[in-house]
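Weekly sync notes, structure subgroup
Attendees: PM, AL, DS (notes)

Item 1: joint prediction request from the bench team. They want all two components modeled as one assembly rather than separately. Inputs as received:
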Amino acid sequence: MKTPFVSSSLGIFPKSWSEEYAGRIPGNIPIWVGILSELTEFGIFFVAYFIAKFYYPDIFSQGSQSLHTSLGVANTVILLTSSYFIAKAMSFIRVNNKIKCERYLWLTFSCGCIYLIIKTWEFNWNTLQGFSANTNEFFTVYYYMTFNHFIHVGWASCAILWVIFRLRRGAYSVQEHSGIEALAVYWHMIDLMWILIFPLVYVLR
Amino acid sequence: MKYFKKLEYYLATLITITLVNTFLGEQLNSTMLVSILIALTVTYKGFIVIDHFMELREANKNLRLLMRLYFVIFPSLIVISAFY
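Output from the run, pasted for the record:
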């Protein structure tokens, strides 16, 4: 089913950028401003990672071997699964199945919570091993990236609760579900950032 | 129904790639080979999420281009970093 254009151009961009020419904007324009800002922020972290790795290759090679890789793998699987769950929630609101949509939103929220628990456990494990943000350049970059990502998962999980509350209040329907879609694209962005962070800090030597 | 099956297929693919990648990263000694392999799979995983989970394939082409570009630039830096 083709969803009608919910948001229109702000009128400050070239005509070729408009939804009519370039295609529908999933969610709404404000969420994409947020997403592109977040991508820039994480992009700066990634550039910092590569610059630091250039100057301290040995520290970075040893650093990734000091981490609990299994916990990183578990969190990757959980975030990928959460992306699947929220995509399912989207597909169910499109056929007006609000019960299943809510069920999948709860599953996504559960994945977010499990991710946060595992990450907290990992941070604690690192501390017990004697690692902190001040240990060396690798751990400084590791904590900047992963803790920042941790915060994003935290507030996006809170946003899921808000969307569930709005769904129960009847705010979304087959015709108007841009709120759920905005949350979904934001959640996928968080998953995408982890897809990049995971190999950088856990796998690459 | 086809759409539902597609999502499950992509999830299984993404998880399998992650597990195989990690295993190879642990086992292989060649940093160059591992870096290239990881860069390619990160790009592929990114494209799957962007096109099929985010649904940008049938949506705004500029946003899709920006997102896909992100998953070309940073994996390229992974390959470059293997030469350090």
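Discussion: Confidence is low (pLDDT under 50) at residues 1-7 of chain A.
Action: AL to compare against the crosslinking data before next sync.
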